UniProtKB/TrEMBL annotation:
It is found in: Cytoplasm. One of its GO terms (cellular component) is cytosol. This is Fructose-1,6-bisphosphatase, cytosolic. Residues 13-201 form the Fructose-1-6-bisphosphatase class I N-terminal domain. It comes from the Eukaryota. HAMAP family: FBPase_class1 (MF_01855). GO terms for molecular function: fructose 1,6-bisphosphate 1-phosphatase activity; metal ion binding. Its main location: cytoplasm. InterPro entries: FBPase_C_dom, FBPase_class-1, FBPase_N, FBPtase, Fructose_bisphosphatase_AS.
Length: 338
């Protein structure tokens, strides 16, 4: 590919151009969200370059501390967290920040405060860092509540109140998937240009998929609806072909595949983890927002994931998300036992 010629192509849809186009659809927009998204993009580029040279730069292995979840922090968890805290606060557009790696919420310095709140998982899939398997960053954006100067209540909002969400996957290529509430679009980082280019416009998740994704190692502790659903994926009663199992163990990578290929990603509750493992604010909500925007469904076993009203910033919830018809099936099994 002739990069120079390519760089001169005026129709090259970079993420910056794309977001500016989106902004132009709202005459009252002040450009704050555009500036905030650009700082998130910068953070993703920085983490992407750190991840790609993790082995070389001694960024492999443990940082030596434990986070609020009781997990041993990886060096890249800590580095990514620092990068995003700096990128988000220096944007001058944020107020309350919640990170998986920090016990308490961060209230941005008054001089730099803005009207957005960001919840994020700086490095998702930490168990896959040291073996170089795809990992990512997940983020969700809320607007401050009317008249609020910035309190925890501004982030303890149902996911359906988010105004934007996305993730960046650090894999064979670096892909940023974003929704500002009007559909889902994917951008691939062109390392030679240093630009995210629109490569997956208007992502629509297939209505039904051929893949199920779950850690079957927890099967003995599952409840009946989950057990029945997975059994049916393997031994379908309706004469259809069995689904294939795909599980990477990085939510970003498993959800990215699910968005593009269809199927269902699940992290159910079980006897050991009655609320599942994944965190509501910065894993379940952003991914559910994207999946719904792409025409899929996100269900908790009790209801729509985006209807959860969180009470704690590191709260967990079971999650079943993906192709509409597949999630509908497990929803029916839960409703039958409710
Ligand atoms: O190893 P398990 O129990 O299957 O859990 C895997 C899940 O845990 C996670 O790694 C949790 O996220 P973090 O790596 O950000 O803590 C998810 O990415 C993934 O879906
Ligand atoms: Mg995570
Ligand atoms: Mg993480």
């Amino acid at each position: 590919m002739d990069h120079a010629a390519d760089a001169m192509r005026t129709d090259l849809m970079t993420i910056t151009r794309f977001v500016l186009n989106e902004q132009s659809k709202f005459p009252e927009a002040r450009g704050d969200l555009t500036i905030l998204l650009n700082h998130i993009v910068l953070g993703c580029k920085f983490v992407c370059s750190s991840v790609s040279k993790a082995g070389l730069a001694k960024l492999i292995g443990l940082a030596g501390d434990t986070n609020v979840q009781g997990e041993e922090q990886k060096k890249l968890d800590v580095l990514s967290n620092d990068v995003f805290i700096k990128a988000l606060s220096s944007s001058g557009r944020t107020n309350v920040l919640v990170s998986e790696e920090l016990e308490e919420a961060v209230f941005v310095d008054e001089k730099l405060r803005g009207r957005y709140c960001v919840v994020f998982d700086p490095l998702d899939g930490s168990s896959n860092i040291d073996c170089g398997v795809s990992i990512g960053t997940i983020f969700g954006i809320y607007m401050l509540k009317e008249g609020s100067a910035g309190t925890l209540n501004d982030v303890l909002q149902p996911g359906k109140n988010m105004i934007a969400a996305g993730y960046c996957m650090y894999g064979s290529s670096c892909t940023l998937v974003l929704s500002t509430g009007t559909g889902v679009n994917g951008f691939t980082l062109d390392p030679s240009l240093g630009e995210f280019i629109l490569t997956h416009p208007d992502i629509q998740i297939p209505k039904k998929g051929k893949i199920y994704s779950v850690n079957e190692g927890n099967a003995k502790n599952w409840d009946e609806p989950t057990r029945k659903f997975v059994e049916n994926c393997k031994f379908p009663q309706d004469g259809s072909s069995p689904k294939s199992l795909r599980y990477i163990g990085s939510m970003v990578a498993d959800v990215h595949r699910t968005l593009l290929y269809g199927g269902i990603f699940m992290y159910p509750a079980d006897k050991k983890s009655p609320n599942g493992k994944l965190r509501v604010l910065y894993e379940v909500f952003p991914m559910s927002f994207l999946v719904e925007q792409a025409g899929g469904m996100a269900f908790t076993g009790k209801g729509r994931a985006l209807d959860i009203v969180p009470t704690k910033i590191h709260q967990r919830s079971p999650i079943f998300l993906g192709s509409y018809d597949d999630v509908e099936q497990i929803k029916a099994l839960y409703e039958a036992t409710a």
